Amino acid sequence: MPSNKGLIPSKEYDIKDSNVELIGTDIDHKVKYNSALTEPAWNDGCVGVTTGLKVWRIENFEVVPLPPHQIGVFFEGDSYIVLHSYKVGNEDGTETHRLGHDAFFWLGSKTSQDEAGVAAYKTVELDEFLQGTATQHRETQAEPSDVFLALFPRITIRRGGVASGFRHVEETVKPETKTLLRVFSAGHMVGRDSVVVHEVEPSATSLDEGDVFIFDRGDKIYVWQGKNCSPMEKAKAAQIVHDMTLAKHVDVEVLSQLDSGSRRVLEELGAGDESEVQSFHHARPLGSTSRGPASGPMKSSQPSKLLRLSDASGQLQFELIKDGYISKNDLDGNDVFILNNANREIWVWEGARASSAERASWLKVAQAYVRHLQSEDEASRAYQIPIAKVKQGFESPAFLHTIRA
Question: Which residues fall in a compositionally biased region of kind Polar residues (predicted)?
């Protein structure tokens, strides 16, 4: 792993910015493909050839593969590229030798502009390496898509990240800190028993009665079970603690919120007793705007909308074609379409005969549409909605499920 000494992160990436819109222009394609042929990350003999999951982290402007035991662990200060390759079957259910690919760039909430730009650019380059057959996804830490979460039986979000940038500073040595992990089910988002482990502020105000929390003091581990947490969350937390104690042998104490002894956890987290904590209700740090309980402007009960992007008039424009039930018959291979799936995700469908200007501008227009949604209600988090692009003839299962639903 490259040394972090003397480096501090460059400007933090603002997900509302359109910095990644510059990717995908016509002159990029040959350059990116030739560049992809020399990128060690793509030329390991497995990418595009075998099925499975691969993850890379952007470290000092390079694409660095993660070892298998680190797959599923993400740091909020970093950007990642994730490739899921799978066999594509025929409509009659028979197998083919063709592979389908989902290529994601995941942006941590505190990633830098540099890292976000490299992740986006390199994801497009990866698609070029795969002959343009991949479905590209932009994922944000706060609002991961269902298809992304479903890749991992356990996804862990940690604080910190790899330092990058050009400004030289003296390295600061930080003392070892206590950590608090929030464990909760992602089942309501992906329909399976996957779990999210999210590092949060080690404070009593971070506790929520609906989840399980693991407090690592360094020399002891406390497990605080909220009174409304599920049996599955308790079981998953137990597995996580087991893994932690394999690395270091420390005492573990499991306490229910309803136990009188649970006040010890509050004291360790800086609260004298429960009276100092206003409530044990703290919003989950991801998936809360569109896939959690319906509230605010991001309710999933909103109708799906289909918009067409066209340059027939000499200018790039998008117009509303249909709302409500959307089918594949509503798409036209001469253009690029935006499908807003009830504010759960934004899909861009690229027609095989769409103009080069339309194809090159897909992300720019998708970002512009998201900004339009944001402008309708500044209190919303529309800018966090997952964005994905598919090409006609290479539609992913998730996209096909969306337009058939």
Answer: 287-304
- If you classify domain 304-403 with CATH, what class do you get? alpha beta
Specify whether the CB–CB gap between 403 and 326 falls below 8 A.
Answer: yes
- Residue 120 carries which side chain, given as an amino acid letter? A
Dist. CA 369–CA 18, nearest whole Å: 11
- Please, which residues have CB within 8 angstroms of residue 62's CB and are 6 or more apart in sequence? 2
Beta bridge partners, 155, equal: 196
Mean pLDDT of 297-326: 77
The span from the CA of 40 to the CA of 281, in Å, is 46
Lowest mean pLDDT among 15-19, 183-187, 327-331, 335-339: 15-19
- The neighbour count for residue 96, using CB atoms within 10 Å, is 10
b/e per residue 159-171 (b: at least 16 CB within 10 A): bebbbbbeeeeee
CATH architecture of 179-269: 3-Layer(aba) Sandwich (3.40)
Q: Write out pLDDT tens, residues 91-143.
A: 666 777 889 999 999 999 999 999 999 999 899 899 999 999 999 999 999 99
Q: Over 50: is that where the pLDDT of 166 sits?
A: no
| CA distances for 284 relative to 131, 158, 191, 314, 345, angstroms | 39, 15, 18, 46, 19
Asked if 356 contacts 26 with a C-beta cutoff of 8 angstroms, the reply is yes
pTM of the complete model:
0.84
Q: What is the per-residue burial (b if ≥16 Cβ within 10 Å, else e) of 269-299?
A: bebeeeeebeebebebbbbbbbbeeeeebbe
For domain 21-141, the CATH class is: alpha beta
Query: How many whole angstroms separate alpha carbon 315 and alpha carbon 312?
Result: 7
pLDDT at 277: 62
Domain coordinates of the chain in residue numbers? 21-141, 179-269, 304-403
Q: What is the pLDDT of residues 257-281, one digit of tens each?
A: 999 889 899 999 987 656 556 678 8
Q: Who contacts 116 (Cβ-Cβ below 8 Å, separation ≥6)?
A: 13, 19, 20, 79, 105, 107
Output Rg (C-alpha) for the chain, integer angstroms. Answer: 22
308 residue type, one letter: R
Please name the amino acid found at residue 324.
G
